[in-house]
Amino acid sequence: MSANSPAARPPVDDANRRRLEQLLADHARSGAEREALVYGERRLSYGELHRSVRRIASGLHRLGVRPGARVLLYLPNGIEFVQLAYAAFTLGAGVVPVNTRLAAREVEHIARDSAPAVVAFRADARALIRQAIGPVPQALVVGGTAADEVAFEDLLDEPERPLPPIPEGEDDCVILYTSGTTGKPKGALNTHANMVNQNVALVGSALGLGPDERNLVTTPLAHRAGIGRIFGSLGLGGSLTIMDKFDPEHALDLIERERISIVGLPPTVIRMMLPQIRKAPERCATLKHVLVATESFPAVLKREVTALLPQTRFYSVFGMSEALISILMHHEQFSHPASVGRPLPGVEVRIVGEDGHDAAMNEIGEFWVRHGAPGSGAVLKEYYNRPQETASAITDGWFHTGDLGRRDAEGYLYIVDRMKDMVLSGGYNIYSKEVEETLRLHPEVADAAVVGVADQIFGEAVAAFVERQPGARLTATELIEHCREQLAGYKKPKHVFFVDALPRNSLGKVLKTDLRALAADMLNAAPT
Length: 528
Hints:
This protein is of the alpha/beta class.
């Protein structure tokens, strides 16, 4: 029987399809005094958090929030973000988290697309919100109100009233807008079943997490990784410490002071923390688990940080706003260093070739993912208000990730590129991910990104943008020779540009559109 056949597919566990606010209420009943949130000097127990959520929900209901409505959260990291999200859920409404690093034009697109009933923001963001959105349906403001606005603080003083039941089938939870590196962001609509399955059932089970974990979130709460830390921590009854904004020294202070046991750290953040970790690795003595996501985990960085923190287990998680797919466990980081791991339990992965059929072992195709029906497991319900894009992205329950990769005989998955990042040179397909991974293997390379540029002879050529390690004197010739030794000759970069830092969007993803434009400008300006 095929592993992809319906009969062989493990079902999504209905017990794990509960709503997030229900899990919060359960933890408040069974452990009201347990610590739920830490932010600066503020600490909230599960009982205090649950009571505040109920009061805020009463206030939102008075403002007209009903099942199926959306609350846009343009808020920096803080307890208010968490309280408002769970209050919306309590009413059967969903939330639209928006990173406060986004520009007014980007906020305008998200607000127009999601049509929220309430927009929550801090008073110091009023000018940007007014510029981006204009008249707000209902403005909910933290830290001081103007005319026609409601103070968040007033909602905390609301009398707790009986709230109407949530209609059967109303499961929409959060709309996560994609980064928009190749176009306008679209909203990935995830349900409560998605969030509970991904962050509580799948990751929690894979790592053996429970209520004793002390979590730290270093990224914006509005980012997919931040959302995962909120729902994963509070869903399991653990404690969550929230950083207002990332600072390497402050992060180490919090890990040490709050006895943090689990944190999610992109490789970029690990690199930023590395000087402090080198000086005093004992400050991370309580750190048991690190979830590494959003970008690949370079081998050089991996070797150093695992040697410095032998008590810590590192897990590389492969996912996106639309789906959670696989995990590379700690013991596999060096046995399969180029892999993104094997699919999480119950998550199915097909690798589909250009002909629409499943690719053979080690052949390259697009990753398709399924975990129950869309919206019931680890795969999004739909793209919000985009039926055509949803239809093109989901076929018979299979979500097309847009990632090109392969699977080996042991079931490990390998990404070679995003479909739109492929370079076509002289009739050969060159997968930028493969070249980038090879560049990062050089000990003097901190990070690298590859794009295609116009070439008079081959149509396109490979251009590499490289961040050198501090103090490195690496030359373009040396780096090209390094690639020549690791790759087929046609895959090596023709052009190498050294930069102080790769351009990234507010979610930390490299802006390849910017790099292509920069490469074109630099090549046009070069003497002939």
